[in-house]
Amino acid sequence: MPHELWITGLFNQYFAGPAISIMNLSHLKVEDAAHPWSNWMVCELLVTAFIVVLFGYLRARLSVENPGKTQHTFELAYEFFKASAEDMIGHDGQRYLPFFGTIFIFILFLNLIGLIPFLESPTMYTMVPFGMAVVTFVFYHFAGIREHGFGYIKQFMGPILLLTPLMLPIELISNLARPLSLTVRLWANMFAGDTVFMTFLSLTKLLLPVIFIGLHFFVSFVQAYIFMLLAMVYVGAAVSHEH
Amino acid sequence: MKNKMMLLAGTMMALATPIFAQTGGDAGDANRRGAAYIAVGIASGLCGLGQGRATASAAEAMARNPGAIAAIRVSLILGLVFIESVALYALVVTYIAK
């Protein structure tokens, strides 16, 4: 059992029962009945609650005449997602925008929550990025099948029929490697950021580690952006039409 | 340049063979781990070279044609990401080899 954050301790104290019954419902083995909650689950729930509250508040106060600072910020973000999606996918990009926006904002907040003392980034554990990568994987295949129907398989067969035996395995493997690379990229960057910070903290104790917090802040944005960009590239490749 | 590369490749091969030649219980495990670490080192180093080249040419292109900065930036980031995944695959291999 790794160290437990105070908030995980609270969850384990008060919500252990529901967690165990949910795990029993889905036939998962409960490894430690006293501590069914892990840090990343609790932080993820925390981020989810924060996002729901933030956007609930934002939605309630949307106004054209008198937009507040928060509204301006998120309108800017929306414009940015829209421009990126149109760059990568084309005119259809708008259709898939909700997914990309969700991915970006969720991952960004998951990364940034690690900057708050006594909390940690859930993306430091492989399960969280893997969940997101699997969702992306399913989503872009779903988008491709919706766009092309059964003809979606043509995307895997290469430009001419003669090359199909060669292209099919290559395409299948590269598609299956995508969740892996998405997972490892996000996880490794977050984990490395935290490790570097802890190492320098144990070396110098004062001031110098702050630089790495700045670095972590920057990397959080870049990784969220890259995750969104790759999701866009994959969706764009899946829904593209052959010329 | 070419001679240097040949020297590097030769050194790597000369070092790699004794690592794989040894067998035995714990020692074999340690050797496999060592080989994995060398592999991730080589992969990261070469990825660094590749990323450096990509960034250098992107910076050059941006300086020559500031109007195309947005398009260049996106393709630069995509390129860096795909180069980086090679190093990440090597990292995964070290975890498997452990």
Q: How would you sum up this structure in a few lines?
A:
The complex is a heterodimer of chains A (about 240) and B (about 100). In chain A, about 70% of the residues lie in helices and about 0% in strands. By secondary structure, chain A is mostly helical.
Record the SSE blueprint:
The complex is a heterodimer of chains A (243) and B (98).
Chain A: H1 6-14, H2 16-25, H3 39-60, H4 69-88, H5 97-112, H6 127-148, H7 164-204, H8 208-239
Helix pairs in contact in A: 5-8, 6-7, 6-8, 7-8
Chain B: H1 2-21, H2 25-64, H3 69-97
Helix pairs in contact in B: 2-3
Q: Would you kindly provide a written description of the structure presented here, covering whatever features stand out?
A:
The complex is a heterodimer of chains A (243) and B (98). Chain A has 243 residues and is mainly α. Chain A folds into 2 domains: 1-37, no CATH class; 40-239, no CATH class. Helix content of chain A is 71%, strand content 0%. Chain A has helices at residues 6-14, 16-25, 39-60, 69-88, 97-112, 127-148, 164-204, 208-239. In chain A, α6 (127-148) runs antiparallel to α7 (164-204) and α6 (127-148) runs parallel beside α8 (208-239). By secondary structure, chain B is mainly α. Chain B has a single domain (28-97), classed as F1F0 ATP synthase subunit C (F1FO ATP Synthase). Helices cover 91% and strands 0% of the residues of chain B. Chain B contains 3 helices and no strands. Chain B has helices at 2-21, 25-64, 69-97. Chain B is elongated. The relative contact order of chain B is 0.12. The mean pLDDT of chain B is 83.
